[in-house]
Amino acid sequence: MPEGDAVYRTAARLRGALDGRPLTRSDFRVPRHATADLTGRQVITTLSRGKHLLTRIEGDLTVHTHLRMEGSWLVSETGRRIPPGDQVRLILANERWQAVGVRLGMVDLVRTDGEARLVGHLGPDLLGPDWDPDEAVRRLRGAPGRTIGEALLDQRNLAGIGTIYRAETLFLRGIWPWRRVGEIEDLAGLVSLAQRLLAANKGHAGTVTTGDRRPANQTWVYGRAGRPCRRCGTRISRGEMGAQPQERLILWCAGCQPR
Ligand SMILES: [Zn+2]
Prior knowledge:
Elements: H1 4-18, E1 25-28, E2 43-49, E3 52-57, E4 61-66, E5 72-77, E6 88-93, E7 97-102, E8 106-111, H2 116-119, H3 133-141, H4 148-153, H5 163-173, H6 187-201, E9 236-240, E10 249-253
Antiparallel strand pairs: 1-6, 2-3, 3-4, 4-8, 5-7, 6-7, 9-10
Helix pairs in contact: 3-6, 5-6
Zinc ion binds near residues 229, 231 and 253.
Family: Belongs to the FPG family.
Protein name: DNA-(apurinic or apyrimidinic site) lyase
EC number: 4.2.99.18
């Protein structure tokens, strides 16, 4: 599942292709907006908010998309082949570039002044201009009995973390994923580390939390179930937590992250 850093890069790619140019094609392949036509309108810009994308269009319109599990935006020169079948949800194109939204989890077209209804519930965006660690900590503390593993994925607390950054951040802080939020003394240190990890990866594909970009060495625990911990040699554990099916996966080291 794309996490905040991947969504941030997607927004940058869409800005490069669409900003400041009038649309020559808009093709919504979702029932609710099948008749919408944005042709002739200029794209103002695309912003990321946590894992959400907001493409603002001339005339007080915003296209809201979310990649969810396996969505992506493909950018290519206009006229290039578009993936066949029913996986394309939205095409936005200008004379030069086309952006094709494939398997998007959400596609909405709203008034720009109604964006808050879609993203207003989000906590501070780890990669946004509004990033505010104190506010993230305040929101986390609002439910002290919750497990920290679930709380970090709740985008109402802070926006942008998925299963990879959850696992890696908790490993690096030595925190067992089922520990209660109220039992963690240094929540500020925890959220600041998560922010630094996402920021360090926002400029390139892939997730490197070890500082070592070689493919087999990029993470501490994520993708390493059953293999020895890089610090203590204990085999990395794999389990499930939380209610959302796509967000259950958790990896941890029982040696470095004791109960
Ligand atoms: Zn370990």
